[in-house]
Amino acid sequence: xxADQDRALAGALADYAARxxxxxxxxxxxxxLLADAEDPFRRERRAGHFTASCWLVDRxxxxxxxxxxxxxxxxxxxxxxxxxxxxLHLAALREAEEESGxxxxxxxxGIFDLDRHWIPEHKGVPAHWHYDVRYVVTAxxxxxxxxxxxxxxxxxxxxxxxxxxxxxxGSVGRMARKWLARS
Length: 183
Known about the structure:
Helix content: 25-40%
Distance between the termini: 34 Å
């Protein structure tokens, strides 16, 4: 099963590289992590590990649900550690459900975005790299979210406004622009 999931992720990374050739260096970092013999799907791997998150859009595709992240103090997409789940699209869906409380979420096939970012030391956990694999998740009819312990707050934000606002987190702005440019 692990080998099948790893092959599926390798294929998804290759597809992503074909869609976003300017991000080849980033893709190469993710491919190298996937090939590492030390399990990169567990948070205990301090040299860096996979995380999974989502671009959780409403039914119209005009708004995205963001979290005011408790540890980082930033407005970001929902997501978290893979915790051993090698099917990262399922980990992203799990995180979306846990962090939003929304029912009826659907994950779209394919990787939407990749982001490698540094996580500072927090409560005795050393600083380390997150290799975040991001997927589009679509909300169902019920958009009444529940704020989890991991968030200071949640909010539906207009995607076009995020793309235009220079104060938006860099990776959130990039995802907003990718979303608006999709064909």
